[in-house]
Amino acid sequence: MATPLALTDSGARVAVVGGSGLDAVVQTQKALAAGMDVLIVAEAFGAAHESALKRHAHELGRLVLGPGAGMARIDGANIGFATGAAAGTVGIVSGSGSAARQVAGLLDRAGVGLSDVFVVGGSDMSAAVAGQSTRDALDRLRRTAGCHVIIALLWPADREVMDAMLDLLDDVGMPVVAWAPDGGDAPRHSVTLTTTLDEAARVAARMSGRDPMAVAPPAHSLSWVSSGSVLGLFCGGALCAEASATLAERLATVWSNRPAGQARDLPSGKRVRGHVCLDLGHPGVRGALAHPMDDPEVRSQAIRTETREGRARVLILDVPLGWAMHPDPAGALAEPLAQLAAARPQLTVLAHVCGAHGDPQGLVSQEAILRGVGVHLMPSNAAAAALAAGLVT
User: Fold this and answer.
1) What is the DSSP string of 161-204?
2) Nearest to 66 by CA among 109, 29, 97, 108
3) Which helix (H) or strand (E) element contains residue 264?
């Protein structure tokens, strides 16, 4: 059903829609008719319905975020799996919640806060939907007095839609940085285009008057190896895609169920040799299990499988924090990671805690738990992937 979730300072009402299929479509229509913005957490229900709902929302001056959008910050109200990042002057529009969470956390660590965060869903920038909610969210940010810098995280995206969106961003009238792991067609005059999320955060921080220092990886505590593979086990689809692209720039044949850049699409139902990045939140991987942001069991199972059977020499993990998520994701992973370390001491585990200081799980304490079981913490997801590539070459 459609549940009124927040009444923002500006008086705008926001509804969250769950359910599935046509029920989610009907509830979204009702919420729009009631004058609400809508966050659809339901899974995708078809491009024709999504496109029609978003065109209708545009006509009404409202926003439809999703399907598959798990978080937002609208007029200061945090909704869903929201970030605890401080308030500020940077606005984010993203196709992916995990991409928005990563950038929000990196900005928070640099002392830069957020105005609004609009996660439009993974099919908004498909050819069929053509980025309608991305366009409307950008227009909302452009008219927001407290937003001075825009970050557009353009994944996943049809190439032609992405290029059209970059043209639109070029005329927004304020500083813009865009992340496109698959690249854009040509540089724009007013848009800084990046291929990693941490670069997008650094550029936006500088645009906001901050100069964040890059954090050096813990090379003193790592052993360089000459052979072996990299395995990434991710909660966030965008972080999986970013890691696959980063690895594929440096290594031969990287497989992923969320490929980006030069990475290859993982064959369904087949086990492949070599470097692999898995989005464990994908329904095709987790099956009937809950999403790993809610319940870490699907990833704990994957770690136990690697303990018994694996050949990887480097394991990459993302550990997302935020509201309405598992209260202790690092603690839930501690036991299987300790067992992995005991069974396979030659394996190096790299992780990035994807969160902000205001997240309820506690950024510092979550990092301390992981260090306690031998995990090497990295300053970003892309940094973890880049170091992993160096460790096996």
Assistant:
1) HHHHHHHHHTTSSS-EEEE-TT--SS--SSEEEESSHHHHHHHH
2) 97
3) strand 264-265
Angle CA 50–132–105, to nearest 5:
100
Supply the pLDDT for residue 216. Answer: 54
Q: Which residues pair with 377 in a beta bridge?
A: 351
> Which residues fall within 8 angstroms of residue 37, CB to CB, at 6 or more apart?
12, 13, 14, 15, 62, 63, 64, 65, 74
Residue 220 DSSP symbol: G
Q: What is the torsional sign of CA 124, 129, 131, 134?
A: negative
pTM above 0.90, yes or no: yes
Q: Minimum mean pLDDT among 2-6, 92-96, 190-194, 326-330: which range?
A: 2-6
The answer to whether 229 and 249 are in contact (CB under 8 A) is: no
Render pLDDT for 187-212 as a digit per residue (tens, 0 to 9). 677 899 999 999 999 999 999 999 87
Please classify residue 265 by burial: count the beta carbons closer than 10 Å to its beta carbon, then call 0-12 exposed, 13-18 middle and 19+ buried. Answer: exposed
Residues whose CB falls within 8 Å of the CB of residue 374, separated by 6 or more in sequence, listed in order = 337, 338, 341, 349
Handedness of CA 224, 227, 230, 231 (dihedral sign): negative
Contact 325, 97 (CB under 8 A): no
